[in-house]
Amino acid sequence: MNHKNKMETRPMFPLIVSMAVPPLISMFMQYTYNFVDCMFVSWIGEKELTAVSLAFPITTLMIAMSIWIGVGVNVLIADNLGQKNQDRANSVVTNGILLSAVMGIIVTGAVLVITKPFFSSFTDDPEIYHLAVRYMRICAFLEVSSMVHICIQKILQGTGNMIGPMWFQIAGVVLNFILDPILIFGYFNFPKMGIEGAAVSTVCGYTLSMILAFIVLIFRKQKVRLKIRGFHIDFQMIKEIFVIGFPSFIMNALGAFMIYFTNIFLVVYSTTGVAFFGAYFKLQQVVIMTLNGLVQGCIPIMSYNYGAKNMPRLRQAFKYGTGIGIGLTGISIILFWTFPEQILRIFNASDEMMTFGVPALKIMCTSYVFAAAATMAASFMQSTRRVGFSLIINILRQLILLLPFMWILSYFIGMKGIWWSFLAAETITVFISICLYRRYPVEFSNDPV
């Protein structure tokens, strides 16, 4: 490398903006897959919307697996580039792509096995059950393309290249958006596939993104490349990828478990409650994954400067990133409070759904600003190799605190207690994150994880 990397020289605010906007757009696009599916499917009927909502924990878990490998690769590449270790950074690229392909095949098989028992545990309605199974059996085949293209996306982002990943992500989402109405409703002489058309559109979108990702990595000049000559599978490196990326997996996988348990609470009240929460979660994911796009822009900066032992820029990146995240989520809160009815009408909400959905939307969205601070704190811990603290923060906000609050508050105030539990869990997690940040300062180390 004949010149200094922009992550160690450029002023921090414009650096974060330039690094965060493309992945922010990419992550926004990533989670519009399910949002668009949900929107079009809701136009068929509420049972179809319920079926897709029940499938969402599985698809969320599948994406979480992809992000697990991708973030592990991302942090290792940025760290090694910060240490000027080009050969090892190239080795991370090849090991990461092979690992993502193998894991994609394994996860696809696992999803096909669990599909029927998973949905049978949720509903006695045979129509909803068969709709969900039909949808998920097709969506299972998105995992290999998801794993590989997200891995390549994170590889490029780890070098500071944020533009390429944005465009191949956008291409997949656009294809999904075009195919969804065509295949669901049978336009232009295509067969009317209903809910299965939404699944086929999603798989096609991910496949296009994977193809374009390979083209960008191999045929465009990058700061890292596939290591072919002298390459060998490095099991220590694979272990590091798993360990470093694990907090990101937990953060996203816990979302799937959270949906699962929330649906268990809601189904006691009504299937409309399940349909509403499925629609709400699509809205929340647009906000949270936009926030995660910001985080994915900040992680390479923090990881690079941790590897370079540059404490001032490391802390500066964290503080600027937190401020931007709070600002973005604050805007989303204003929108959700101002236009709740209009937002729910996107999903063809019934009068019953509107009755409890509008106040529920206002209560839950208020937690976003606290989620922004906690998510950035977890990412800072992850970038500085304090994986345990990052795990603690993520598990607290989506499991350890949330579920007890959900059980207690729903017992006393009914369905409203479920909505209030999200705000309570996020608020307490922020205070715990502040304590961890202040009590345990960063220590630089070149030792492997």
Topology (elements, then pairings):
Blueprint (H helix, E strand, L loop, with lengths): L11 H19 L1 H11 L3 H37 L3 H35 L5 H14 L3 H16 L4 H23 L9 H25 L15 H32 L4 H37 L3 H28 L1 H6 L5 H15 L2 H16 L3 H14 L1 H12 L1 H25 L10
Helix pairs in contact: 1-7, 1-10, 2-3, 2-7, 2-8, 2-10, 3-4, 3-5, 3-6, 3-9, 3-10, 4-5, 4-6, 5-8, 6-8, 7-8, 9-10, 9-14, 9-15, 9-16, 10-11, 10-13, 10-14, 11-14, 13-17, 14-15, 14-17, 15-17, 16-17
Please sum up the structure shown:
The chain is built from 17 helices and no strands. By secondary structure, it is mainly α.
Tell me what you see in this structure:
- The structure is a single chain.
- This protein starts with 11 loop residues before the first helix and ends in a 10-residue tail after the last helix.
- By secondary structure, the protein is mainly α.
- It has helices at residues 12-30, 32-42, 46-82, 86-120, 126-139, 143-158, 163-185, 195-219, 235-266, 271-307, 311-338, 340-345, 351-365, 368-383, 387-400, 402-413, 415-439.
- 81% of the residues lie in helices and 0% in strands.
- The protein is globular.
- The chain has 17 helices and no strands.
- Helix 3 (46-82) runs parallel beside helix 5.
- Keywords: Antiport, Cell membrane, Ion transport, Membrane, Transmembrane, Transmembrane helix, Transport.
- It is found in: Cell membrane.
